[in-house]
Amino acid sequence: MSLIREEISIKREHSFRSKIDVLPHIEVPWHYHPEYELIFIEKSHGTLVVGDCIDHFKDGDMIFIGPNTPHIMKNDDVFYQKESEERVIAWVVHFKEDSFGKEFFLLPEMKRIREMLTNSFKGIRIEGSTKYKIIQYLKNLHSSDYSQRIIVLLQILQLIAQSEDLEYLASDSFVESFKQSSNQKLYQIYEYVSKNFQQKIELDEAAKVANMSKTAFCRFFKSKTQKTFSEFLNEMRINYAQKLLAEGKLSVAQIAYECGFNSPSYFNKQFKAKTGIAPLQLRGKSLDSIA
Fold first, then answer.
1. What are the backbone angles phi and psi of residue 214, rounded to the nearest 5°?
2. Contact 170, 122 (CB under 8 A)
3. Could you tell me the pTM of the whole model?
4. 3-state DSSP helix/strand/coil percent for the chain, to nearest 5?
5. Which pLDDT score is estimated for 179?
6. Helices and strands (H and E) in the chain: how many
7. How would residue 287 be classed by pLDDT, with cut points 50, 70 and 90?
8. Terminus-to-terminus CA distance in the chain, angstroms?
9. What is the C-alpha to C-alpha distance for residues 130 and 135, in angstroms, rounded to an integer?
10. Which has the higher per-residue pLDDT, 224 or 1?
11. pLDDT for the residue numbered 289
12. Helices in 144-228 by DSSP H: which ranges?
């Protein structure tokens, strides 16, 4: 398991990439790239991982991800079945910080967009009326050429920058640890946990992923993230539990087991310690309830 750098190819006549993907399923592994990425999922569903956030994605979702933030989308199993009729349709835009010149986003008029771009390292889910306006701009962008492409992209970025219909995905602590470390071992651990958090994870198993002894691993992880591995694992599980509780489809006990906790009572205790409220109080309610 390893985090890979995806190479984004951009045509010589363009300063950024805009495309529509029509695929049988998503195949990109756990990866990062130096480009900002805006993706509108017209048709598809599965699991989304951005940093230490694990979530679902579905038809109509829109995500904006900052440069070098590890992420992956994996379709639900039905997409990979033989003779599956499922299809992925996704509108994707990639651009670099210097696509329009090294100093462009430092201009005074770019202040709000610049602040939004800085926060995009956490990954942003775009919702509400903002999303629907951006969909129309994406359609315009796909049919535009020359300078009109830049104008439309800036209109999209301005919409995101002034919107309140945003949900940030990865935690602040993940972003800080990621900025301060380029250590491949840490990314391998994040990937391992994101794939296995719903099961029992022993400390020695995580240490093996990093090719370390348990003692060395504990020191390493704490120095990079400012938290113990157990704290990190519980936070990732609770973040996922919040999504499931807001959906309101499963009972609290079912969610506890779905998120990898072996005891609903221990789940309740950990959830309340992190959020300040009991899981039952959040079930079926917006995540804004704990903001």
1. -60, -40
2. yes
3. 0.80
4. 50, 20, 35
5. 61
6. 11, 11
7. low
8. 35
9. 9
10. 224
11. 47
12. 147-161, 172-180, 184-196, 203-209, 214-225
